[in-house]
Fold these 4 entries.
Entry 1:
Amino acid sequence: MDCHDTNQPTNCSQCGQRLPQAIRMESIDGRARLFHGDFRDATRLIEPAIDAVITDPPYGSGGFAASELKRPSKAKYVSTGAKYADQMPDIDGDSLLPQQWQRLMTEFLDAAWSVLKDRGILVTFIDWRNLAALHGLILESPFTFRGIAVWNKGNASRPYKNGFRMQAEYLLWATKGKLPDRDPPVYLPGVLSHTTRTNGKRHITEKPERLMEDLVEICPPGGTIFDPFMGSGTTGVAALKTGRRFVGCETVGQYFDVALQRCKEAVNAP
Ligand SMILES: C[S@@+](CC[C@H](N)C(=O)[O-])C[C@H]1O[C@@H](n2cnc3c(N)ncnc32)[C@H](O)[C@@H]1O
């Protein structure tokens, strides 16, 4: 049963402040907890025992003018004629104007800080348009900024007439205090090369499973990963398949259901 009251306004009609929403939680075998609702409400229910926040937030991207930013996600990110996106809902929080998006990202950084253990790790995707803005917000936060890794999407990505191909997205990473001690230590690559799938996508901006399997190595084996913007649950699948625990959150019902199904399959995989 979905306990969301869809008639409840999300913002106060007087002051515009966001109102808390009802949350539905599904637990999978004690290894995963998935929240259907807003991460700002879910994080109040999560104890500060998370080893790594690994996430792919709405990029607040896809244009420079307000009219371009406000276009539906499909118009911004899906190539014309791509059939897979016909049945997919838009991404929540993707049509925000710059100041609204920066507020959302600030609240995300606050939430990540509140659920991480001391020495916990934050890894967040971003594209080239808002790389500098998100970097600035991390520098202004209590996190210790550690660096930027690159996701090389390969030659299948969007070409640029008379210019450089849009071939990369970025991973900003930071820690809550010192880096964790690991024995044995890990040395992860700074460039991760994986192509996106062209068929059978379950989310408009679904990340490749192999990419996420590489990324979750930043979390110690057996640790818990939180993805506040889980979409179709790819971070969860990678975490669970590699012996980690997972906590995820998603507002859009269709994506939440896909994530739940995929995480159940990952838990039951031989
Ligand atoms: C870029 S997508 C993540 C895609 C994911 N990496 C995958 O492989 O499917 C970001 C997701 O965050 C969700 N979202 C946006 N705002 C949110 C919020 N306040 N709380 C929870 N989820 C949110 C969007 O609906 C979207 O599905």
Entry 2:
Amino acid sequence: MGEGTAGNIILTGFSYTGKTKVGQEVARRLGWSFVDIDEEIVRLWGKPIAEIFARDGESRFRELEREVLQRVCQEKEAVVSTGGGAIMNASNRELMMAGGVVICLEAKPATIYQRLLRDAEASDEQEVRPLLAGSDPLRRIEWLKGFRQPYYALSDWTVHTDNLTLEEAAEEVIRGWRYGGGKKRERIVLPSMADARESDAPYCEQQGAACVVTTATESYPVFVGWGFLDQLGKRMRNAGLQGRAHIVSDDRVFPLYGDRVKKILEEAGFAVDSMAVPQGERSKSFETAVSIYDWLVDRRAERGDSIVALGGGVVGDLAGFVAATFLRGLPLVQIPTSLVGMVDSAIGGKVGINHPEGKNLIGAFYQPRLVLADIQTLTTLLRRELVSGWAEVIKHAMIRDPRLLKLLEERSQELLKLEEQVTTEVVARSAAIKAGVVSEDEKELGIRIILNYGHTIAHGLEAATSYERFLHGEAVAIGMMGAAMISQQLGLLSQEVVQRQQALLQRFDLPTRCSDVDIERILRAMELDKKTGEEKVHWVLLAGVGQPVIRDDVPREVAVGVIRELLQS
Ligand SMILES: NC(=O)c1ccc[n+]([C@@H]2O[C@H](COP(=O)([O-])OP(=O)(O)OC[C@H]3O[C@@H](n4cnc5c(N)ncnc54)[C@H](O)[C@@H]3O)[C@@H](O)[C@H]2O)c1
Ligand SMILES: [Zn+2]
């Protein structure tokens, strides 16, 4: 075992993967002691876990968990079974990693569900277990597990228990302890999901929202559904908005949806007026912002009036910026109508305009009061714009969600046709990934950087072509190929995943290579032109699907070589 690795076996994994039973068996075989952290907590504090959660809150529970872990991890020769959520808390995770070899017990959601049902029958318990609550427990397990998967993946060793007996699983754990420990660990991004609020999990039925964004100061729902525009009035009222609604849109979207939105809001009791700016990136300018300020002044807009941004990312960023600044902030409602808007720009509170010298140079973090995405509006979006949006969805799958990746692979044809059910599911899931990441890191100080997967080269390509040739998603698609190829060359990622990503991008008609771009201009834009760059480039790479890795030590030759390869088509 390596230096500093204490001699314990720490078991992690979802509920019903056998942590307790397998752990006891391992302890018996090795002649070690067995500790179940949850049981320790109950014993020491004299209350059931559910009660600690209900009375004192999850954060208190995590504190207790940490105290126990800290103590236990200082021991030697203990098999420690941790609660399914322990590894998602950054400091708990550090304790676990330092305290021994971390071994994850895995099981497929269907297996977990079966074990859970069997157990519920056998134990004849009156209380409905939280996992069995709701109308579709299997789906809930899938979601919750998917959410935690990136953390489980940080373990030193993983044992798939689906087809193993207790004895076999114990043997595998011991094997993992022998082989899996001691190796130097990759620096994988370690976000804290201490607050992976299970009640906020996507598809949470009680609120009807696809997901909820929770920052230090705010919390707002993201609604995603087919025909959901009709709910806008009610949703705004529920968010406590009233008075006047100032719709800001563009001259392509407003003729399509403006009257309908106006009517819906009027019926909900809002006084409504509207303004449409010219469509396109050029409207993200200081001049256009000023024209909106002028209009609001003219309309005598007051604090408490809402700004309703109806359109793609341009309108969302622009109207959001005006909302953030006018009268020191008016409530903002985002109604994204482009795919980019729905899964990316409308969520997370980055608002802003461009400066002639650079994109998005002027802006703020300003969270909306709610986001409402009506999937049906995508039916009028130009195909090229739609395709460009799929690149960000694929990005979310690659960095965070193997299951979403599978869904995209299997249902691409239906998705390209915007088939109602699957499109809604995929957009909701993708939006939830963005919501999850920004909830952890509102101001882009840490984990939010993983959303930049594919974007380092994309920005180079966009700048080198004066933002005229590529739509953003097209550049991101090529950039993701670059990032994947670099990952592969550094030995992080298998060829298979690189090819899988390429095939998926192609299935969505996205480019994976390009020609006729001046490589010197790309390198200059990426600051890779100098041999000894002072500013290190922070690359978002992949160590597998759902396993982003940040590296600032990618050799310049590797990056340049890959970019050259991308340009040979
Ligand atoms: N704030 C963020 O976090 C963030 C994230 C990603 C992108 N962005 C910004 O978003 C912008 C790109 O967003 P976008 O791709 O939505 O661009 P966009 O707003 O320009 O929309 C693309 C085109 O589609 C049209 N359109 C939008 N919805 C439509 C619909 N339902 N039917 C018909 N036409 C429709 C628009 O009028 C426009 O012509 C960029 O300015 C980018 O900087 C911001
Ligand atoms: Zn992007």
Entry 3:
Amino acid sequence: MPITEEESDKIKEHLLSQLENFPEDRRTQIKEQVNSMSIEEVETFVEQNKLTHLGEQCIFCSIVAGKTPSFKISEDKDNIAILEINPLSKGHSLVIPKEHSNKIAQSTKNFAKEISKELQARLSPNKVKINEIEIMDHALLEVIPIYGDETEKRQAPEEELKALQEEILKPKEVEIKDVFEPKKEKIPVLPPRIP
Ligand SMILES: [Zn+2]
């Protein structure tokens, strides 16, 4: 992620504002180190520490790493899907690419389509919308079931999200299809035997 000089300065400023988290005797040294960093060095630092252009830790990378708890509903090798904690509707989910990037890969779009089909089958909304968004430089997809009565986002209680996660993850009831079964001969029903 190439950064501009202005962004580099912002990141340095942010890092310097964190100085109080370090022991007093190391602060001067760290301050000098931060101030002497070139743009390239800031860029490497940002990449290695998965920071945003403001120098903040990326919440989505933290979720992917399992450092921030979430309600995961699916995962493949490049993406995870979690329930949005401030949903617009029941089943509102986020598809997060595991890689911190401001671009969405085709594999992520395909994964989101699978999630939308799953939500459609499980929750029966009128339709499912997929939006591309970017938060803290991490591009992701929102998968939102639309029921027609949506008003605004609200904070969902943890128990509600947990119950919904279980509902989405529970094994599907197997539909028994008899299309390929050979037709059974009709057996005449015998009258019940009277002993
Ligand atoms: Zn990230």
Entry 4:
Amino acid sequence: MAMLYSNIVMHTQSQSDDTITFLGTGGARFMITTQILASGGLWLNLSGTEILIDPGPGCIVQATKRKLRADKLSAIILSHRHLDHAADVNIMVEAMTRGGFKQHGWLLAPADALNTEPVIFSYLRSYLEGVEILEEGKSYSIGNVTFTTPIRHIHPVETYGMRFTTAEHTFSYIADTRYFEGLRHSYDSELLIINVVFVEPRPPVDHLSLPDAESIITEIKPKVAILTHFGMTIWQAKPGEIARRLSQETGVRVLAARDGMRFEMSQLD
Ligand SMILES: [Zn+2]
């Protein structure tokens, strides 16, 4: 297990305050370039440790608007290097480190986001405590949170989802991928967050569609599933209505994320 010794976290927050904030719910290029739905990723606050996942375009705007303080982040994690997941990584590193005046925090990303054409500027790397490469089947620890990257996804660039464990809960973030059998064996957890771009499968595009999401939810049977990262067709089909229908069909509580939605992990109790 790669241990990331981040700065000492103050245990002032009870675990019942654990939250996941959806900075944006748009996904794929047309939704992102129009910003009909915002983009910006997920902001976790778990057992007093704050982590940002996939800072897409507008992350800095959405975060500051919601009074989330980047200098409290312990880490930024990229599932992959695509723009809708990584465009704001540089400004968020600058914000996390107070403009580089406070060396602080970790960046975790697949190797291909960091090597030949890095998504992060070289001068910003020294602001960080360190950079950790995500690999299939590895475990990572940040403050009071541990997570694994159980399986490499099928997507045009190196991509991983994450399965998190806190003192009280487990949840998984299924980032961009084509559907494959390994997903259901890798993300068993109480809460599933699934990036669902299309209403119908669109081979050869490597994204999940609604039937894929329904299969994953039926197979894993989490307590709650949250759909996000919506493409244009999902938005037009009304995510809230889609979630209601999926709830009826799967027997699992399915929610459609909304821009700015804050999910309280105590809802899993
Ligand atoms: Zn992608």
